[in-house]
Amino acid sequence: xxxxxxxxxxxxxxxxxxxxxxxxxxxxxxxxxxxxxxxxxxxxxxxxxxxxxxxxxxxxxxxxxxxxxxxxxxxxxxxxxxxxxxxxxxxxxxxxxxxxxxxxxxxxxxxxxxxxxxxxxxxxxxxxxxxxxxxxxxxxxxxxxxxxxxxxxxxxxxxxxxxxxxxxxxxxxxxxxxxxxxxxxxxxxxxxxxxxxxxxxxxxxxxxxxxxxxxxxxxxxxxxxxxxxxxxxxxxxxxxxxxxxxxxxxxxxxxxxxxxxxxxxxxxxxxxxxxxxxxxxxxxxxxxxxxxxxxxxxxxxxxxxxxxxxxxxxxxxxxxxxxxxxxxxxxxxxxxxxxxxxxxxxxxxxxxxxxxxxxxxxxxxxxxxxxx
Length: 372
Hints:
Layout: H1 3-27, E1 51-56, H2 62-77, E2 85-89, H3 94-108, E3 112-116, H4 124-133, E4 137-141, E5 157-162, H5 166-179, E6 184-190, H6 196-209, E7 215-222, H7 227-241, E8 245-250, H8 253-265, E9 273-274, H9 280-287, E10 293-296, H10 299-315, E11 329-331, E12 335-338, H11 342-350
Parallel strand pairs: 1-2, 1-3, 3-4, 4-5, 5-11, 6-7, 6-8, 8-9
Antiparallel strand pairs: 10-12
Helix pairs in contact: 1-2, 1-8, 2-10, 3-4, 5-6, 7-8, 9-11
Main location: other
Family: Belongs to the bacterial solute-binding protein 2 family.
GO molecular function: carbohydrate binding
C-alpha cells in the first residue's frame, strides 16, 4: 500500500464512521428529544432560550467530530435540531478563536451558552474575560493556564474539564518499552507545544523512561496534532536516526497515522507504536496489531456534558458559584485500549452510540484537577 493510499483509506474510514455515528445518533439519542420533560438524556428548553455554540479546532478529525456530535446530541435532547449548535471553528488559530467568539457574543447579545477549547492555554483567559463582559456562560476543555480558575469569574465561567494525561501516557509508554524488550531508542511526536495535553503526554513518556535505563529518548518534537506534519517529522527522524529507532510514542492517533505512513514508505511495517485518543480507526489498528495501544477520553460525552453545563448555568438550573471546586475544575474519564480489549471496547463505544444522561453533570468525572 502506498503512502497516499494508506492515508486516503483512513480518511475514507473516518468519513464512513462519522456518517454511521450521526445516523445512529439521529435514530437513538435524537429520538429521545422531548422538550419540556426532564429525565434520562433529556433536558427542558428554557424560556430565555440561550443560543448554543462549540468553539474548537476542526471537524475533519474523528476526535473533534465526536466532541461536537456530543454537543449536537445535547441540543437534540432539548427538542432542537443539530443545527441549533453553532460551530465556531478556529482552524488552529487562537486569534480566530477569540475573534469568532466575540462575534458570537455580540450577535446573541450575551444570551448564549458556549463550550470551548481555546486552542492554546494563554488564549483561555481572554476568552473567559470576553464571556464575562457579555454576561454569557462558558465551559472550557483541555487548555487553560494554571492560574485561571472558574471560581474567580462568578457564574459566567461555569467549569473547566481536562484529562489527567500523564498516567495514561506513561502506561502506553510502558507497553511500548516492554514490546521493545526494555532497550533501544524511542522517538516522540507531540502536539502543539503550548497545549496542556501535549505537555502531559510527553511527561508521561519521561516518567516511564526512569524505569527503563536501557531505552534512550532520541528526540521529541511537536507535530501539532497533524497527520501530514507527523509523517514529515517521522521521515526526518528516520533520516537522522535510522535503525536506532526501535519504538515510537505518539501524543495522538492522528499523528500515529502519519507515523505509519512514513514507516510504510521505508518498507517498515513492524515498528512498535503507541498513540492516544481512541479514535475508531486507531482502535481498529490496535485490533489488527498495527498499534500496541491507544487511550480513549470519551470525547462524545465530554462535548455533550460541557454544552449541557453551560446551558443549565445560563438558564439558572444551578449556580456554578454555589458548587464545590471539584465541580468547577475536573478530570474527564480515560480508558486504556490494548489488543486484548479492543474488540470489547469497539462494541461498547464505537459500534453503538452510548445513551448518556445529560443532566448527570459530574457522574463519570475523575476528581478535581490537581496542580504541581
